[in-house]
Design a protein that fits this description.
It is built from 4 helices and no strands. Helix 3 runs antiparallel to helix 4. The longest helix has 15 residues.
Length: 72
C-alpha cells in the first residue's frame, strides 16, 4: 500500500478526525491482505453499509475486494 496516494492520506485524516485515533495506528491498520477471508468479510459489510448513501465508495470497495460481486 502506497501512502503517498492522496486518497489513502485523505482516509487517514478522515478516520483520525472522526475517531481521534493516532495517525500511525490508522496507517498501520489500513494495510489489508485482500485475500484474507476476514478482510473479504469486512469488505462485504462495508460495501452494504455504503451502498445506499455512498455508491461510489461502495463500488471502490467492491473493486478493492478483487471479486465481481458480494452476492452470496
Amino acid at each position: 500500500m502506497n501512502f503517498n496516494n492522496t486518497t489513502k492520506e485523505s482516509w487517514i485524516r478522515f478516520i483520525k478526525t472522526l475517531t481521534g485515533r493516532h495517525y500511525q495506528n490508522i496507517k498501520t491498520h489500513l494495510n489489508f491482505s485482500f485475500e484474507s477471508p476476514q478482510t473479504q468479510k469486512d469488505l462485504r459489510k462495508v460495501f452494504y453499509l455504503f451502498l445506499e448513501i455512498f455508491p461510489e465508495i461502495a463500488q471502490k470497495t467492491l473493486n478493492d475486494s478483487k471479486v465481481d460481486s458480494f452476492d452470496d
